[in-house]
Amino acid sequence: MSDSQQTAPFDYIIFGATGDLMMRKLIPALYNQLRVGHVPEEARIIGSARSKLDNEEYRQRAREALNRFLPDAHKDADLIERFLKKIQYIAIDSTKYESNWGGLKEILAQSPDDRIRVFYYSTAPQLFEAISENLHAHGLITKQSRVVLEKPIGTNSETARAINDGVSRFFEEGQIFRIDHYLGKETVQDIIALRFANPLLQAVWSGEYIKSIQITAAETVGVEGRAAYYDTSGALRDMIQNHLLQVLSLCAMEAPSSLEADAIRDAKVNVLKALRPIPEEAVSAETVRAQYVQGTLNGEKVPGYLEELGEESHTETYAAMRAYVDTPRWKNTPFYIRTAKRSAHKLSEVVVTFKEGTSKLFGGTPGADRLVIRLQPNEGFGLSINVKNPSAAGFGLQRTALDGRFAPADGSLIPDSYERLMLDAVRGYPALFIRRDEVEAAWAWVEPTLNAWAADKAPMEHYAAGTYGPEQARQFTAQTGDQWHEDMAD
C-alpha cells in the first residue's frame, strides 16, 4: 500500500462544500494532513456550492468547523490560519451549464497545466452526471484529474449503473474513486494485517476451524437530521450494501497476489461474486428487519423511529443477514451481518468464533476460542482462550483474554478515515476505493432482499431503543447454533 508521504501539489475542488460532510470530515481531514506534513504548501482547496458567500465568509465557516470538530491536541492557531489561506470559495449551481464555471476556470488557470485536480462530489448522487458534464463542457477535466464519488452509488442495480455510466462518459475508470470511508479506517485495514501477517491466524482462517463470523455496526443515535435521506434508504442500503459487505470481503478473501490496488480489489470482488444468492422466497428465513420503538437509552427516554419521523414508514432501522461465501475455504460457514440505530452501545466489530475443541481431557468440551476485532471504539483486538483455573481443586478451565490495541506506536491518535482517502485520491492510489464491478456485485446480492422487504415478504419486527435489536434476531442466529456476541459467555 502507499506510504504516508507528502503529495505532489494539487487543487482539491469540492462540490457541496457548505454541507455537513465538508465541515465535519473533509476540512478537518485536510487540515490534519497539513499538520503532519503530507500537504504541500502549493496545495489549494476550492469549495463550491450554490450559497452566495465570499472567501472570508466561507473561511469563517471552515474556522468554526475546525474549532468544533478537531481534538484539542490538534488545534494550532497559527497552523489553522495558514490552512485557511489555502481555501477559496466560488458559488456555482453545478447542474447548470450557464452558472459560474468561468470563475472556476479562472481560479484553476492560476495553477500549472499539469497540476493534479481532484473533483470531490459531496452532493446527491443524481447530480454526479450533470457536474461531470459541465466540467467537461467547460474544459476543466485534464489528464491529471480524478473524481471522488461519495456514497450512495444508487439505490439499486439500475440506478447504480446509470450513475456509473453517467460519470464514465467524462472520466476514465482509472480516474474514478468511489469512496467508502470504512475502507479508510486503519482498523479495517488491520484485518488484512491480522490475517496475512500472522502465520498463527493464517493457518486457521477457514471454515475448517471457524464456526462463524459476525460483523456488527451499531449506533446509539437515531436518524436525527438525516431523516429525509434515511427514510428513502434504510439500514440495508445505508450500511450493509457498502460498508459491511466490504468488511466481509476483507474477512473472506483469498490472499491477494500483492498489496497493489487491483490485486486487493480482485480478491474482494471474487468474494462478492461468490456470495450465495438469497432468493426472494428465502428472505424471511435468512434476514431480519426491524424498527426501533420508544425506549430508554443511557437513562433517558427516547422516541421511536415513527415518532421522530412524524409519519408512517416501512423503512428498517435494523437489518441482519446471514451470508454464505461459496468458496472452498468458506463453504457452509455462516457470516452474520447486522447494523442498527438506537442500539444499546455504539460499536463496530468483527467477531470470529472458532469451532469447539474435541478433547475430553478436561471432563467436557472446552469452550470455543473467539477473536474480537474492535473497529471502533477501543480500537484493537481480544482473543478469548481457555486456561487452567488456578483456584480449582482439579484441572478445571477458565476463560481469559489476550488483549491488544491498534494505537500508533508513537502514542498519537488514529487518523480519521477521510485523511487517508482524500490524499490517496491525490496520489492516484485506488486500493481503498470501490471499483465498479464491486458496486455491481454488491447490489446484485442485496437486491432480492430489498425487493422482498418492499413486498412485505418478511415481517417488520420491532425493538426498544437502547436494546441490541429484536428478539427475533436471537432466534435467527440460534437456527444454526450461533449467538450474537453480547449473548456469549466469556
How would you sum up this structure, described in words?
The protein is of the alpha/beta class. Helix content is 36%, strand content 21%. It has 2 domains: 169 residues, Rossmann fold (3-Layer(aba) Sandwich), CATH 3.40.50; 226 residues, Dihydrodipicolinate Reductase, domain 2 (2-Layer Sandwich).
Strand order of the largest sheet: 16-15-14-13-7-12-11-8-17
User: End-to-end distance, in Å?
Assistant: 36 Å
Taken as a percent bin, the fraction of beta residues is 15-25%
Q: Mind telling me the CATH superfamily name of the largest domain?
A: Dihydrodipicolinate Reductase, domain 2
CATH architecture of the largest domain: 2-Layer Sandwich
Specify Rg, calculated over alpha carbons: 24 Å
Count of DSSP strands: 17
Per DSSP, the total helix count is 16
- What's the mean pLDDT score? 93
Determine and state the CATH class of the largest domain: Alpha Beta
**Structural class of the helix and strand makeup?**
alpha/beta
The percentage helix is 25-40%
CATH topology of the largest domain: Dihydrodipicolinate Reductase, domain 2
Catalytic activity: D-glucose 6-phosphate + NADP(+) = 6-phospho-D-glucono-1,5-lactone + NADPH + H(+)
Function: Catalyzes the oxidation of glucose 6-phosphate to 6-phosphogluconolactone.
Enzyme class: oxidoreductase
InterPro entries: G6P_DH, G6P_DH_AS, G6P_DH_C, G6P_DH_NAD-bd, NAD(P)-bd_dom_sf
Q: What are its keywords?
A:
single chain, 490 residues, alpha/beta, Rossmann fold, Dihydrodipicolinate Reductase, domain 2, 2 domains, nine-stranded mixed sheet, 16 helices, 17 strands, 36% helix, 21% strand, NAD(P)-bd_dom_sf, oxidoreductase, Glucose-6-phosphate 1-dehydrogenase, carbohydrate metabolism
